[in-house]
Amino acid sequence: MLTKRQLLQYVGSAAGAAGVYRTMAALGMLGVSSLTGCSSPSAVSQSVGDGKRVVILGAGIAGLVAAYELDRMGYDCTVLEATARAGGRSLTVRSGDVIEEFGGRQRVNFDDKAYLYANMGPARIPYHHRAILDYCKAFEVDLEVFTNDNRAAFFQVRGSLGDQAVVARQLHTDQRGYIAELLAKAVNRNALDQELTAEDKERLLSMLKDFGDLQDDYMYVDSGRAGYQGQHVSKGLVGDAMPVEPLGLRQLLGFDASDLWWALRFSHGVNQNPTLLQPVGGMDMIVEAFKARVGHLIRYESVVEDIANQSAGGVRIGYSHRGTTMEALHADFAICTIPTTVLRDIDNNFSEATRAAIESRKYDAAVKIAFQARRRFWEEDHFIYGGISWTNYNDIQQIWYPANGYHRPKGVIMGAYIFGEDEFDRDFALDFAKMSHSQRLEHALASGERVHPGYRDELEVNTGVSRAWSEVPFQKGSWPSAPVPIAALEVPDGAVYFAGDHTSALSGWQEGSAQSALAVVEAINKRVMA
User: 20 to 30 Å CA-CA from 188: which of 142, 223, 297, 386?
Assistant: First the structure.
């Protein structure tokens, strides 16, 4: 009786590698995702890789995905991780943890409770990031809803409101109302007659009236959608309640557009649309699930010193273990997930095109700052359950409210999430990265005070922790600045393949790392079967 391997050998002789790969997929030897076309978590464990050795550089999400899939297919895998932990930029901190940067170490002083943690790296998973979600399902990682856009949260922007914090639902409502009113005026003044028939005009006016909650004369006066006068009063509870007085149109236009308008449409981005999810207990629950399956393959505190394609084929990886012992690994293939910010300083014999791609790939420098609060004042005082407040005071940009531990005595609030540049190309996060840890905390406290008066007193200041990703050893950045992958890193250089979000169009997302790893697994399988 013909074995599957013998069948594949015959197919290879007749139809080449492409025919072999299609046969493998048809036989269920490679689970193929309908979304990605890459090996999926549902792939059946096989012996495709018997006799082949792969060394994986980095135990972040890309490295863990590659190790898991290749190990199941029979490859002999070793993962070299420079630090003492897996996960890369997926970092959840809890009581007793230590955060290391080039400038020093911080100890996490949160209370030792399961719900008191901070995701200092990725913190949300969009509903359409199927690779990561499929792994969560396969590994039984429990998920809960992550609240991204909360209309009870605040906007505090320098400008025509004199730094006043405004409830998000009012800004959204007033913006829609004035846009609808102005467009209705244009229609009624026959300004759009060339574009609209009489029937079109009638239908558009009806739509605008509902869109902006306009009066019968198509004027925007106020709307209960913005809330009602008196704190937290809703029309359903108090029949005579009056809607809050709308902001003036010129007040809205007085905001700095770069600070407000993109924030108002933030949740419209395809990766920010509801539903978003998070693992129960912290984002690193995904890392822990991978470790339970491939943790035995990881060599921690193993710093890659050189990468060399061998003339006879295969690759040699030189690395130092725990800062002393120099060792070398020889393998048929290497999968390099090391960020280009670090990789450019590692000796290698890559091609000129690969080296140029590595050198050109730049990274942003995001910063996160978290505090433990004495009480959940955002819930008790403002009925905010998860979501984000926006502010441009001291450039902290965002305050995140935890989407877990509701109604518990305490909570961990993300007091700042800093990223991006202003219209003058000033990098906010780099400015924060250059500060001392105490300076970062002070800026976050002063900024939060503008959004929540009494903020400093509500927080246990000694619990403040910060993470500047540009200052993290073996990372030196948060995510690639440009979302477009570089072609030279999408193909192997000799026996070395490249994976990670920096080789993906989904830079900055775990999904990009997972998808890139799955693509490399597919490519190595094709090469082996050839």
Answer: 223
Are 364 and 481 spatial neighbours (Cβ–Cβ below 8 Å)?
yes
Q: pLDDT per residue over 376-395, tens digit each?
A: 999 999 999 999 999 887 78
Closest C-alpha among 3, 33, 196, 116 to residue 463: 116
The tokens 């905010």 sit on which residue?
384
CA 6 – CA 25 distance, rounded (Å): 16
Question: Which residue reads 């993470």 in tokens?
Answer: 467
- Do 387 and 338 have their domain in common? no
- The count of structural domains within the chain is 3
Asked whether residue 73 is assigned to any structural domain, the reply reads yes
| Secondary structure (DSSP) of 118-162 | EESS---EETT-HHHHHHHHHTT--EEEEP---TTSEEE-SSTTT
Residue 30 · residue 39 · CB < 8 Å:
yes
Report phi then psi at 307, rounded to 5. -130, 125
Alpha-carbon gap, residue 297 to 68, rounded angstroms: 10
Asked if residue 26 belongs to a domain, the reply is no
Q: In sequence order, what DSSP letters do the residues of 86-109 get, joined into one string? A: SBTT--EE-TT-EEEETTEEEE--
Give the C-alpha separation, 187 to 196, whole Å: 9
Q: Which domain, by its residues, includes 355?
A: 31-86+284-361+483-529
Question: Which helix (H) or strand (E) is 380 found in, with range?
Answer: helix 377-382
Render pLDDT for 16-59 as a digit per residue (tens, 0 to 9): 444 544 454 455 444 433 333 444 544 434 678 888 999 999 99
Residue 139 belongs to some domain of the structure: yes
Side-chain-side CA neighbours of 76 within 13 Å: the count stands at: 8
In this structure, are 278 and 408 located in the same domain?
yes
- Is the domain of 314 the same as that of 448? no
Give the number of other CB atoms < 10 A from CB of residue 345: 9
Dmax (CA) for the chain in angstroms is 84
Query: DSSP of 280-333, one letter per residue?
Result: TT-THHHHHHHHHHHGGGEESSEEEEEEEE-TTSSEEEEEEETTTEEEEEEESE
Domain assignment present for 10: no
Same domain membership, residue 138 and residue 121: yes
| Statement to judge: residues 244 and 376 lie in one domain | no
Write out the H or E segment, with its range, that includes residue 188: helix 168-188
* pTM of the entire predicted model: 0.90
Same domain, yes or no, for 380 and 450?
A: yes
Least confident of 84-93, 292-301, 500-509: 500-509
Q: Is 356 in the same domain as 370?
A: no
Tokens (6 digits) for 361: 């790939």
Sheet holding 154-156, edge to edge: 165-167, 154-156, 387-391, 397-401, 411-418, 367-373, 459-468
Phi (first) and psi of residue 154, to 5 degrees: -120, 155
